[in-house]
From TrEMBL, chains A, B:
It comes from Microvirga terrae. Residues 6-271 form the Pyruvate carboxyltransferase domain. SUPFAM superfamilies: 2-isopropylmalate synthase LeuA, allosteric (dimerisation) domain (SSF110921), Aldolase (SSF51569). NCBIfam families: citramal_synth (TIGR00977). This is Citramalate synthase. Gene3D superfamilies: 1.10.238.260, 3.30.160.270, Aldolase class I (3.20.20.70). The gene is cimA.
Length: 531, 531
């Protein structure tokens, strides 16, 4: 039985631009367009040329090799012809393969938001589609607020769809713009629409305001639609658009879907799914969602000891898909709920070749439990776990020794009578026979200490030069009778690898110091440094 | 037409404990149990007594007033009677209204993970349920991996369900433990099960590994199930459990559901939904998901200018529900009309009798926006908001002025050659005509500064004597181009009242200083101090 084709339409660069705190630069857009192209996405909606200078510049040339480069904009305004409408003109000028017009399909909106008549709106749809077809573009029409419009006035909503179809639109996309439609309603409504326009011309554009964007997209496909619009990592305003990453995972890997549908995404490209997702977060400097389906850092992470032994016996018992096919990895978290199975798996994952029964495993487990009782938590602090094990195995050379540090924060009046706060650190480090004293300022005490620690490490300085602190988390932990501070610091270096270290102390500077030095040792081990 | 009752079962404190990076303290569990109780949740699954000391301690007494306090554990192990099984014994000893047994329902698991026979497993279910019933507990049975088990061997899966039901379980919960089941499969399978056991005894426990946990829960309800299990904020291992916050919003507010089902959650409790969600994140020091349906900070935030004017004309055009009914707020990032409504409500809540149109409201709003742009967030920092408003109204006397502080953390060798870390602070404060210099030690820099600040406040010293710092939270906030540190400090005094203040700065000591001094001013205002 041959599979039906589902096309994927990505609007990260247009609808995703509405995400709170997201601002695409031109370079960001180019980079993401390339990621989408390589993933096998069919349509890349690059933005809204004419609406702002950056998008107009982005459409000065086609930015994809295989994907259809698509421009978004509104249907012509009432009272003008399509050829005299500046918005439409901007779309037609854009170097795009396809144009996606957003059209009103809820009569209430036509009257209140557009302040025009239902008939005028239909004419606007018809003429805009025609104008774009006349210029050789493929045309899509996003029927805005379709589901609410259908519930309020089904005949009018359907007439918008039909008008677009009859004018020559290749795709008519039913948009749940408010995000308030539920899956069973999507099923019912898309089924009804598919009696008027064939499903192979229908698309779905869902939002996540009820946590059902992915399910709504799947429901629409079940009801006959053959295009899914969404964004990478579910970016988008309010609660986001349908997450294309999740949908690609589900449609490629779940029984029933994989056999029925072809996404145009190869298995190789699928293996890059996790990488694509992380790259988008990197480009936008957003905290990755570690709980994201398929690609999240925790998507295949098991904590409980009872699960861990079962997973090792047969991963099918606890995993719905194999993490490697989407470029992710299984993680058995080291925790005081785990036991030898967890530790063994974690040791293997970190590259230690210890076998079950090795006496050293019990010693590592004891040390982990001892430190966890003090407030350490090694899940989420891989690099500190790695350094701990290496120490237990006697494989950490005495690279350096911090004999003393002093960190000062002072708030005082400056020369012009302003109150300013200054942070300084002094560090005394022994490296082999050398004793080095370094001082540094910082925007805070931890920053000052970090800079001072890494200012002069003698013969190892070149190896730690490219270390960069990228994230800093603090948690007060009630361990035993006293509160202690748990600090997690995430680092990167020139290689793009990211790792996290942990420090625990009642004193936040002390805890930070532990995490900072652990990271330096980790980097030196990684770099193969020797005494 | 009378509505059918859907019961809500929360497993934040049990399944949610498996979340990467989450560690509940006893106090955390008590606080969350109280939140759940007040929300109107029917069952609060408090943990796994007998599996770890904290959970055993948590079940030393009943922790809810109205909700059924529920203990989780495994069915009896093969080769023992229920009365001789230590796991079951621990459950029966717990101070719980209900016991939720997790049982295998996939024959593959029975053989490979449990290493026993299908019949032995059924006997285990039967005897465990009976034993708990004999002790007067309500019994629920979680059929683990139910959907995968049903797909592999429907007869065996159904026999597990029937066995539990016939032994007297009040609820048999179908668990999608791997999270890989899709909504249309849930519909099909739950429908089939409901022919064997009535839907009013069936529950659904979904995970979000395909982004469909909420939709799966709704699909199960549509197919007849009447209990939903989930967690607050979708906490849980891997990709999390079904998000009860989202489900409460959808079931209370969406047409079709609100008319058909009663959740046992009052409209007043619904109005606390956002607060509950944020409190959970506060307690666990987790970054809130601003894109969360209904309760996220951005859930009703409209960025596009075109939407904003339409929203102002009629919110129904762009919002699927009204934000206020779930205790959230519309954020119009381009208008101050929505802002004034928010501030007015907040002012009233803090006891300021300002009426709409008072010119001072706009000044307060501007100051709040100015500070929020710097990284301040006044939700969760009531006392700082109170002090800010009092300042804007000119009602804060110049109690004291910190002219200078210096905080030092030093790690050095002590007299006996041990490396110790010491923290000291010096503070110079002007109180009226007096200039007071105080020094203090502390277990960390913030503690030292706190002690020094409150060591000698001249004529006000007796008023701040009983201040006690009870909680300290730090979060790195990406505001604009630089990271800033946001510190929240919770205080109490002799009266039992607790309040929270906030400080924001790139420098954590500076941020702490702001929060500490805000709290002192708050206390002095509260005490009616005058110059």
């Amino acid at each position: 039985m041959s599979r039906e084709r589902i096309t994927l339409f990505d609007t990260t660069l247009r609808d995703g631009a509405q995400t709170t705190g997201v601002d695409f630069s031109l370079e960001d857009k180019k980079a993401i367009a390339t990621l989408l192209d390589r993933l096998g996405i069919d349509y890349v909606e690059g933005g809204y040329p004419g609406a702002n200078p950056l998008d107009t510049a982005f459409f000065a040339e086609k930015r994809t090799k295989n994907a259809k480069f698509t421009a978004f904009g509104m249907t012509k305004r009432a009272g003008r012809s399509a050829s005299n409408d500046p918005g439409v003109a901007a779309l037609l000028e854009a170097e795009a393969d396809a144009i996606c017009f957003v059209a009103k399909s809820w009569d209430y909106h036509v009257r209140v938001a557009l302040e025009t008549t239902p008939e005028e709106n239909l004419a606007g749809i018809h003429e805009s589609v025609e104008a774009a077809r006349a210029k050789g573009r493929e045309v899509l029409v996003d029927c805005e607020h379709f589901f609410d419009g259908y519930k309020a006035n089904p005949d009018y909503a359907l007439s918008c769809v039909k008008t677009a179809y009859e004018a020559g639109a290749r795709w008519i996309v039913l948009c749940d713009t408010n995000g308030g439609t539920l899956p069973h309603e999507v099923t019912e409504i898309v089924t009804a629409v598919s009696k008027v326009v064939p499903g192979r011309h229908l698309g779905i554009h869902a939002h996540d305001d009820c946590g059902c964007a992915v399910a709504n997209s799947l429901a629409a496909v079940e009801a006959g639609a053959r295009q899914i619009q969404g964004t990478l990592n579910g970016l988008g305003e309010r609660c986001g658009n349908a997450n294309l990453i999740t949908l690609i995972g589900a449609l490629k890997l779940k029984d029933g879907y994989a056999a029925r549908f072809d996404l145009g995404v190869t298995d190789d490209a699928l293996g890059q799914l996790t990488h694509v997702s992380r790259q988008v977060d990197e480009i936008l400097n957003r905290q990755p969602n570690r709980h994201a389906p398929f690609v999240g850092a925790s998507a295949f992470a098991t904590k409980a000891g009872i699960h861990a032994s079962a997973v090792l016996k047969d991963p099918r018992t606890y995993e719905h898909v194999e993490p490697e096919v989407v470029g992710n990895a299984r993680r058995l978290l080291v925790s005081d709920q785990g036991g030898q199975s967890n530790i063994l798996a974690e040791l293997k994952r970190c590259g230690f070749a210890l076998e079950r029964g090795d006496a050293r495993i019990a010693r590592v487990l004891d040390e982990v439990k001892r430190k966890e009782a003090q407030g350490f938590a090694f899940e989420g602090a891989d690099a500190s776990f790695y350094v701990l094990v290496k120490r237990m195995l006697g494989e950490v050379p005495a690279f350096f020794d911090v004999e003393r540090f002093s960190v000062n924060v002072e708030r005082r009046f400056n020369a012009v009578g302003e109150l300013v706060t200054a942070s300084e650190a002094i560090v005394k480090v022994r490296v082999g026979d050398e004793v080095l004293i370094s001082a540094a300022e910082g925007n805070g005490p931890v920053n000052a200490l970090d800079v001072a620690l890494r200012k002069d490490l003698g013969k190892y300085q070149n190896l730690i030069q490219d270390l960069e602190l990228v994230d800093y988390k603090v948690r007060i932990y009630q361990g035993g009778s006293d509160a202690v501070t748990r600090v997690l610091i995430e680092f990167t270096d020139g290689s793009g690898e990211r790792w996290t270290t942990i420090g625990v102390s009642p004193n936040i500077i002390d805890a930070s110091f532990q995490a900072l030095t652990d990271s330096m040792v980790y980097k030196l081990l990684k770099a193969g440094a020797s005494l």
